[in-house]
Design brief:
Elements (H helix, E strand, L loop, with lengths): L4 E2 L8 E3 L13 E3 L4 E3 L9 E6 L3 E6 L5 E5 L4 E5 L12 E7 L2 E6 L4 E5 L5 E6 L23 E3 L2 E6 L11 E9 L4 E10 L12 E3 L4 E6 L2 E6 L4 E5 L5 E6 L4 E3 L2 H18 L8 H15 L3 E5 L3 E4 L4 E7 L8 E9 L5 E4 L4 E7 L2 E7 L5 E7 L3
Parallel strand pairs: 3-27, 17-23
Antiparallel strand pairs: 1-4, 2-3, 4-30, 5-6, 6-7, 7-8, 9-10, 10-11, 11-12, 13-14, 14-15, 15-16, 18-19, 19-20, 20-21, 22-23, 24-25, 25-26, 26-27, 28-29, 29-30
Length: 388
């Protein structure tokens, strides 16, 4: 197995400051992290789509969605082991969407069964933690948004926090309701941490007005005692206890982003290619032309969105800094951006731009863990050294 490798240095130095700064507020200066800060890890692991990562204290574990399994990687970038298979039996994966760890126990949340399967660090199945609630993905009529994280699951001591959707992640014109719940080890819902609901008109097509993508709420764990929740309807981020008490808030100030027809074509082409890859089917030679025609007709009918106002992901570090990921189809055909807005904690508002192709998924001290995508849409686990 190959050891971890560094990408060739294209931009000299780890950080390039590209805006003039004043001496009174240097922390607000935008920074760009160069590609030499990236370390690709687990190069010999199976190429797949990784959707979540968790810290095991000395190693990290990534969760795949396209070929459901867990990849465990040490701090030197070596793949320690992989485990997990799709299926219906105990310990098998149906639709895993999130992974978390407490001490030496891994929790893999599966939205189709409404439970977290538990494993030790060598992959042995230890049982399940169920949840007595209707979670996104469980009901046959429930739908999941491409860009959403309906199955996020985080452990906080003796409880777990995870979202429930009373009506799924909606299609255009439907009621969209979102609840963040605290669940005990017996599966009972202890409290509602936070709820948000948008009217049916939020996604409805209006005659003469192009559609806009409505972002879903976002949340993350800062520590065992604190969460952050981004409310796209109010455009604010709140700090909350695991049972929902608000202990602080930040104005998020998301900018509206215009979506061009060409960006939409690239976005749809990328996702169709991924669907063919996941189904192990050859890509049709006419795919590009079919997608272009689809976009053109959609623009005529007003069926496709022209803008997005919100963020696509949220993270929080030990200093209670909130990282909000901007939306950009220019940076990534998946809709995530290289630039994150950092708020609160010990710093004033600033932006951090990551290397091209890198998607940040977890903050861990001086490192940010995520994935790096190559030109063929294949992703590899990777980490980036973060500014201090």
């Amino acid at each position: 197995m190959k050891s971890a490798r560094r990408m060739p240095a294209v931009i000299s130095g780890l950080l390039l400051v590209f805006a003039a700064c004043n001496t009174e507020d240097r922390r607000s200066v935008p920074v760009v992290i160069g590609p030499d800060a990236i370390t690709v890890i687990g190069e010999d692991s199976l190429a797949t789509t990784y959707i979540d990562v968790t810290d095991l204290g000395g190693s990290v574990a990534y969760l795949s969605s396209t070929e459901p399994f867990v990849t465990m990687i040490d701090t030197n970038g070596r793949v320690a082991r992989q485990f997990g298979v799709p299926g219906e039996g105990p310990g098998d994966f149906r639709n895993p969407t999130s992974i978390d760890a407490v001490a030496d126990t891994l929790y893999v949340w599966d939205v189709r069964v409404g439970a977290a399967s538990m494993y030790d660090t060598v992959g042995r199945y230890l049982g399940r933690r169920r949840a007595d609630a209707n979670f996104g993905g469980v009901a046959p009529t429930t739908r999941m948004d491409y860009a959403g994280r309906p199955g996020l699951y985080r452990r906080l001591d003796s409880i777990a926090v995870t979202p429930a959707y009373t009506n799924g992640v909606s299609l255009p014109g439907e009621q969209r309701s979102y609840s963040l719940l605290a669940v005990n080890n017996l599966g009972a819902v202890l409290d509602t941490v936070w709820t948000s609901s948008l009217p049916a008109s939020a996604n409805a097509q209006v005659q003469g007005r192009p559609m806009h993508l409505v972002p879903i709420p976002l949340w993350a764990r800062c520590s065992n005692a604190r969460l952050v929740v981004y409310d796209p309807a109010m455009d604010i981020t709140t700090y909350r206890t695991p049972t929902g008490t608000e202990v602080g808030r930040i104005e998020s100030r998301a900018d509206s982003v215009h979506i061009t027809a060409e960006e939409l074509r690239q976005y749809l082409t990328f996702h169709f290619r991924r669907l063919y890859m996941a189904a192990h089917l050859p890509e049709p030679s006419s795919l590009a032309e079919a997608v272009a025609e689809m976009v053109q007709q959609g623009k005529i009918n007003g069926d496709y969105p022209s803008g997005f106002a919100g963020y696509t992901s949220i993270l929080c570090n030990a200093d209670n800094e909130v990282w909000l990921e901007e939306f950009s189809l220019q940076d990534s055909p998946q809709g995530y951006a290289r630039t994150w807005i950092v708020l609160g904690g010990r710093s004033s508002k600033r932006s951090v731009t990551l290397p091209e192709g890198f998607r940040l998924m977890m903050l861990d001290g001086s490192r940010g863990y995520g994935t790096l995508m190559d030109s063929t849409t294949v992703e590899f686990p990777a980490w980036v050294e973060l500014p201090q």
